[in-house]
Amino acid sequence: HSRLRVVVRRRGAALARDPDYPVALINRAVALFDLSEPARSVEDLTRVLELSDADPDVFLNRGIAYRACADPTAALADFDRALTLPGADRPELLYQRGHCLIGVGEQSRAEADLRECRRLGGRVAEIDELLAGR
User: Fold this and answer.
1) Which of 8-12, 38-42, 75-79 has the lowest mean pLDDT?
2) 86 vs 19, 81, 90, 111, CA distance in Å?
3) Least enclosed by CB within 10 Å: which of 35, 49, 98, 121?
4) What CA–CA distance (Å, rounded) separates 83 from 47?
5) Which pLDDT tens digit goes with each residue over 86-110?
6) Long-range contacts made by residues 128-131, C-beta under 8 angstroms, separation at least 24?
């Protein structure tokens, strides 16, 4: 984790010069998530979305951070929004949304997302394991 702390400090220095620099905010958000600080990661990614056009990868990452914050409603909203945007990583979004749906007890929707993700070639082994446990 010491290497990640250095990254966070470096991103912090870039943000001290320009607190609204989206690339630095994204990098810091990733580092904060890796340091088990998902709420701070959500804050940075939210700021990126306020500063720039809707980006499906930012929504995906914020949704993952929301899941880590135990906020499935916000996570699902981000995954749903990302899926409507051009260039979205559909397999990964379906996988993440499927996992989130399992957590809120929506098994049939979760299985549909996971099966579609598998059909698209994403995370096949992980999905087979998840579905086998059902």
Assistant:
1) 8-12
2) 28, 11, 10, 24
3) 121
4) 20
5) 999 999 999 999 999 999 999 999 9
6) 130/98, 130/99, 130/102
